[in-house]
Specification:
The protein has about 600 residues and is an alpha+beta fold. It is about 15% helix and about 50% strand.
């Protein structure tokens, strides 16, 4: 009897279960699906929900309703397109709640949804506000909790409504009245939020501007975050061109606020700027970039207190301030490097530093219309083209119509260097000012670095130059430059000049190339050189080479255009007191910069 009763009881339970599943579609369709699911979606979202056709109910393996052609409209939207629409929604329901006449949704799956963004936000654009609904009321309740005690809100007073899981497949995000159309496509992901007073997580992947992206975000207090309060947030974005992450505290009220650890990296800064459509000339930015720092600030101004930056292989540390408050974004701060390639570092901001192209290229200052820059740089070791610098202190500024790069101090060729370039773009033709002061440097090392092959001075030199010119390209600027060039050289030698051969050639009375007398070395007691530059022509006011008992003097003109020489020179005796005698010989120097020729000046006087 006991066995029979057990079998009978089990059979009754199975029969009840079968009757339950058999009756569920009929009960649910009449009491819930037709009248309540769209209504419940509207209660949660705050939007007016419309369905293209009656819902389809499935019982096995889970109780769910399938809704086709679903659209979420603003209540006062008129003929405006829906804020959100989807080809199909699958809503997971509680079977027991359905039998009681209630709708309890544990999950929603959206297929091919389209979300339209219409409202500019402090960080990103947002969809139109629903103006009501459970979610809006929950956010408002959280704001009241914040207002009661902003510093230590009572989180136990937050709404605890169950939310569930929202999944989306092959979705799109588009702007309305914008010029981008679909900004994200092939969007799939999942939002898991068990209840409004608990933590939430989001994972998503899609295509943005032709590149695959994936996003992950979590928050232990998402409702507080949406209400404008401080909440812990962890977020990461990954793509082939950009990886970015943040972990810390954030809120979305007003200008938004961030405080925590952040990082960003890209294999190509140029391609990243092109991809993100940042209004900075992509040709002016090259190489990889990575930065990690403690971040504090708002959507308009961020401070990076412990920035560790690697830009094009240049690794440095420092403090950076980034501002978006003005019409142009600005970057300011200080960075210290162990080693620094100034050309590659600055080329991330301006083409002026790339060293590519030629002197006939236009001076590209478009960066001055796209970015404000004020950086202080220091490096133990640095390079600028062929120059090797140590103990570098430099700065670069781009603001308005001015672009300035200064080396305030550096050690080069065993001496010191101060130099700068200033470009004013206020007029259609650029005004360029250049200055340099090299003190007590190794003149032979300088000459070799500059490509000297024949006349190579040896000794300690001091050189100063100031030039100012105007033009659209570097060739024009140099061709009309004005300024001065001065140089002094202490005791040393001039490699590449044989004075005895020079005298022999001169005595024959014919002209000869200077290269014919280059097999030798001329001892020097000093050199004093002064030139005035006017209209791109250097006028040598003083050019004295002090020899043992003699002085070689050169004067004349060296034009920039044509690269020709129009010089006259003489050799004269000089006493210990500096008193000069009559010249023993006079000569002309002509030809080009790279191939000078010597011609004796008449009448000829033989050397003694």
């Amino acid at each position: 009897m006991t066995v029979k009763r057990g079998v009978a009881a089990l059979g009754a339970l199975v029969l009840l279960a079968l009757l339950f599943f058999a009756a569920l579609p009929t009960i649910a369709s009449t009491q819930i699906v037709r009248d309540r699911i769209a209504y419940e979606l509207s209660l949660w979202s705050g939007y007016r929900v419309s369905l293209g056709e009656a819902p389809i109910l499935d019982v096995w393996p889970i109780f769910r309703a399938t809704l086709n052609d679903v659209a979420f409209h603003e209540w006062s939207g008129g003929d405006s397109p829906p804020v959100l629409e989807a080809d199909r929604l699958e809503v997971s329901l509680s079977a027991l709640a359905a039998l009681r006449g209630n709708v309890v949704m544990s999950g929603v799956s959206m297929y091919r949804p389209l979300l339209r963004l219409t409202t500019p936000g402090s960080v990103i654009d947002l969809p139109a506000s629903p103006g009501g609904g459970r979610m809006v009321r929950a956010v408002e309740a959280a704001r009241k909790v914040l207002e009661t005690n902003p510093d230590n809100p009572d989180r136990s007073a937050l709404p605890s409504d169950g939310f569930g899981t929202v999944e989306f497949f092959d979705g799109r995000i588009a702007t309305v009245n914008g010029d981008e159309g679909d900004i994200v496509t092939s969007l799939s992901g999942k939002l898991a939020w068990p209840s409004l007073d608990r933590s939430a997580s989001l994972t998503a992947n899609g295509i943005w501007r032709g590149e695959n992206i994936s996003v992950e975000a979590t928050s232990a207090q998402p409702l507080m975050f949406l209400a404008g309060g401080n909440a812990p947030v962890t977020a990461a974005l990954k793509s082939p061109l950009l990886n970015a992450g943040f972990q810390g505290t954030a809120n979305l009220s007003g200008e938004a606020y961030f405080e925590g650890e952040g990082s960003l990296s890209s294999p190509s800064l140029r391609r990243m700027l092109e991809w993100s459509k940042t209004d900075i000339a992509p040709g002016a930015a090259i190489g990889s970039v990575s930065i990690a720092s403690k971040i504090q600030g708002t959507s308009e101004r961020l401070r990076l207190d412990t920035a560790e930056l690697n830009l094009g292989g240049n690794a440095g540390r420092g403090v950076l301030d980034i501002s978006f408050a003005e019409a142009l974004p600005s970057i300011s701060g200080t960075l210290a490097f162990d080693t620094l390639d100034l050309r590659s570092f600055l080329s991330a901001f301006t083409r002026l530093a790339t060293g590519q192209g030629n002197i006939y290229d236009q001076i590209d200052t478009a960066f001055a219309e796209q970015l404000s820059l004020d950086l202080r740089l220091s490096a133990n070791n640095a390079t600028l083209g062929g120059l090797a610098l140590t103990s570098l202190a430099a700065s670069t500024q781009v603001k308005g119509t001015l672009a300035v790069f200064d080396i305030s101090d550096a050690t080069v060729f065993d001496g010191s260097l101060q130099a700068g370039v200033r470009i004013d773009t206020a007029e259609e033709t650029k005004t360029v000012e250049m200055r340099a002061l090299a003190t007590d440097i190794d003149s032979f090392a300088l000459a070799k670095t500059l490509g000297g092959e024949r006349l190579l001075p040896q000794g300690r030199a001091t050189i100063s130059a100031t030039l100012k010119g105007t033009g659209r390209d570097w060739n024009t600027v140099m061709g009309n430059a004005e300024g001065s060039v001065n140089a002094t050289l202490g005791q040393g030698a001039l490699v590449g000049l044989n004075l005895a051969q020079f005298k022999e050639k001169w005595a024959t009375g014919g002209f000869f190339p200077l290269s014919d007398v280059s097999d030798g070395e001329l001892p020097l007691r000093g050199v004093d050189f002064k030139a005035t530059v006017l209209g791109g022509i250097a006028r040598i006011d003083k050019g004295d080479l002090l020899l043992d008992g003699q002085v070689a003097s050169i004067s004349g003109f060296i034009p920039y255009f044509g690269r020709a020489l129009a010089l006259s020179g003489s050799l004269a005796p000089i006493g210990a007191d500096g008193e000069r005698g009559d010249p023993d010989a006079r000569f002309f120097i002509g030809g080009g910069w790279d191939r000078p020729f010597i011609s004796p000046a008449l009448p000829t006087t033989h050397f003694e």
